[in-house]
Design goal:
mainly beta, Maltoporin, Chain A
């Protein structure tokens, strides 16, 4: 096996290519969740949303798109340089849920919907697969991000089956007109280290290159001394070269290559055992390679041709105690479309094809290969100066689950200082074996899949925002009905099967955001309510969806001045959650997460320190993490409902060269 160091050298020797987000979008500064109104248009003029295909300014989008950019990304990058989990977790209505306490794997839940329904994109491309693996979220550094776009609710009309619950689009930085470099070194009190670098520059008047690379290490930590790793150990190396070309006639070409390798180990410590007296090491070795391109060619003044294409392969070697699973996931995607404008009307129409496959050398009964051609169309109409209407529709011809129609209707109304958005949509999801418990326990105890039905959802939202001077307020009401959702069912002490749940899972909720911003000071308060219920498997009424807190809230205060530094404090509250298959409790305890951040800028050098979880909240302070006996699925831990790592202090240095 190639050593991790040699693999890292191989990754960094790949040729350099790049795609950028519009340069102006990088210069716009932070744009967090919340309303975009006329008084803020000067600040937001350069924030161009890419995830909805029509490249409109964020304040002109009928679909509500929450954009994180500029200083906000830089702030989260120094808090957690190794992955984007914290970056998306602190967006209202978005929750990062740990799916495998043994390895620390996690996925993204949007407005209470399961994490497998969230489509993770990079520059509008599915570079992490149609259904991103739970560890994928923890393997993406934020080093080269220019903005992050969050679309909530069924977005299958835009991106097909994988976007049933919403879309997270990671938009990369664009090379500027001069050389720039950003190097960050970080260390934590839990013996973790990160080293990341971003280098970019022009190669001609119309073309630029960039390279992002990172090395990340974490030693395994048994914080409560029970012989089980509360934090998995890992060594990870990443490299992503990009190329960007912009023609004088408006044509453009973006090419990206990516490579990542990681070895991750959790479970029992050497010499320790689980309650049945055996050792249970849980480990995963991952190698992922991907490539993508985005091209655009204008035809006249009002019509343009667009092409997007990508391919990804991810190889896994899992270990679940004595069981070793060797498998690979692959994804291929291509989309061609025509877009145009005519007066107050904008439109897009096109064809798409996506293929997702899974191959297991250990358990070939679970192999699948989905091939899905599709046609889609979008139409936006500025009915009046204050009212814009939008419609999207997509028909997927799934080779396993038949023809599926996914619509979405949206409206934007902006009277004065108010902004009102409404949206309804529907979509579907093609079931795979990889629900959360299987990600955590493997395939060895799962029965071969039967005749599962495709999962489907209908979602709706109403968003109202108001802005006056330094004050902003936003209220969102949302709901979703999910049919045929898949879940695990125990059929023996050591066997489970995947079935479609009978009845409908219902989610209703609201998000409230208040913000005051003046003279470098920003204070943001947020509150999210989620009422999620599902049919009781015993057939006796309904029950609350596990691991979905009804009440969450946050209060964030930040002072920052460009070129000098920043100081911030964050407080987040997570309410009680229903639990299942937990012998220690049926409901979790509420908890508060408190953090403190400081950074000082000294010319091209900045020094930073970040204290996370100052109250040292840990799930293992209340109950053991390890089960008294192994679950039917094969999992040895209870579900994670609170932080596992406790208090962590990290700090480091950031060096910047060139650029503006």
């Amino acid at each position: 096996m190639i050593s991790s160091y040699r693999r890292f050298l191989l990754l960094c020797s790949l040729p350099v290519f790049s795609l950028p987000m519009p340069l102006a979008a990088q210069e716009a500064g932070p744009v967090e969740t919340g309303p975009d109104h006329e008084h803020a248009e000067e600040e937001n003029d350069y924030i161009i949303v890419q995830g909805t295909r029509l490249n409109r300014r964020v304040q002109d989008e009928p679909i509500r798109v929450e954009v994180i950019a500029g200083e906000e990304i830089e702030e989260k990058a120094i808090m957690r340089p190794g992955n984007i989990a914290m970056l998306v977790n602190e967006t209202g209505g978005v929750r990062v849920q740990v799916t495998s306490p043994a390895l620390g794997a996690a996925n993204i839940r949007i407005q209470g919907l399961e994490g497998r329904y969230t489509q993770l994109l990079a520059d509008n491309l599915p570079l992490y697969g149609g259904q991103a693996a739970s560890l994928g979220l923890l393997q993406i550094p934020p080093t080269d991000l220019g903005q992050v776009e969050v679309i909530k609710g069924a977005a299958s009309a835009l991106y097909g089956a994988s976007a049933l619950g919403g879309v997270i689009n990671l938009v990369s930085k664009r090379p500027g007109d001069e050389f720039e470099a950003d190097i960050l070194a970080n260390a934590t009190t839990r013996n973790g280290q990160d080293l990341t670098a971003y280098v970019a520059g022009p190669i001609s008047a119309n073309a630029g290159l960039s390279l992002t690379a990172g090395a990340h290490r974490q030693s395994g930590q048994d914080i409560d001394g029970d012989g089980w790793y509360d934090m998995a150990g890992y060594d990870r190396f990443t490299a992503r070269p990009r190329f960007q070309w912009d023609g004088d006639d408006g044509s453009s070409l973006y090419v990206t290559l990516g490579a990542m390798t990681e070895d991750r180990v959790g479970g029992t410590l050497p010499g320790s055992t689980v309650p049945d007296g055996t050792t249970f090491v849980q480990a995963q070795d991952t190698e992922r390679y991907d490539a993508g391109l985005v091209a655009e060619k204008p035809i006249g003044d009002r019509v343009s041709l667009h092409l997007r294409a990508s391919a990804m392969r991810q190889d896994h070697l899992h270990r679940f105690g004595a069981v070793v699973e060797d498998d690979r996931h692959s994804n291929a995607f291509v989309e061609a479309s025509v877009a145009g404008t005519s007066g107050s009307t904008s439109w897009v129409g096109g064809l798409a094809y996506q293929a997702d496959s899974f191959r297991s050398d250990s358990f070939p009964a679970f192999d699948y290969s989905y091939k899905v051609p599709a046609i889609f169309a979008q139409l936006e109409q500025e009915a009046t100066h204050d009212l814009t209407l939008a419609a999207s529709a997509r028909v997927d011809f799934h080779d396993e689950f038949g023809t599926r129609f996914s619509p979405r209707l949206s409206a934007l109304y902006r009277p004065g200082d108010w902004t009102v958005r409404g949206s309804v949509g529907g979509g579907f999801f093609a079931p795979t074996p990889f629900v959360d418990a299987i990600e955590a326990a493997g395939l060895s105890r799962l029965e071969p899949l039967g005749d599962l039905e495709a999962e489907s959802a209908r979602t709706a939202s109403l968003d109202m925002g108001y802005a006056d001077g330094p004050w902003e307020a936003n209220l969102t009401l949302f709901g979703a009905n999910i049919k045929n959702s898949t879940r695990l069912e125990d059929i023996a002490a050591d066997r489970v099967r995947l079935v479609n749940a009978s009845g409908t899972t219902r989610i209703r909720g609201s998000e409230l955001l208040l913000r005051y911003k003046q003279n470098g000071f920003t204070v943001t308060g947020s509150y999210v309510f989620v009422d999620a219920t599902e049919p009781n498997p015993a057939g006796t009424g309904r029950q609350r969806v596990p691991l979905t807190p009804r009440h969450t809230g946050g209060l964030v205060g930040m002072w920052e001045e460009h070129g000098k530094g920043r100081i911030g404090v964050e407080l987040y509250y997570t309410g009680r959650q229903e639990l299942e298959d937990n012998p220690f409790r049926t409901r979790s305890r509420p908890y508060v997460h408190l953090g403190l951040l400081g950074e000082i800028v000294l010319g091209k050098i900045s020094l930073f320190a970040n204290a996370e979880n100052l109250l040292d909240v840990r799930q293992s302070r209340y109950d053991p993490l390890v089960l008294p006996q192994r679950a039917a699925s094969g999992q040895w831990t209870v579900d994670a409902w609170a932080p596992l790592e406790g208090f962590i202090l990290n700090g480091g240095i950031r060096l910047r060269f060139g650029g503006h």
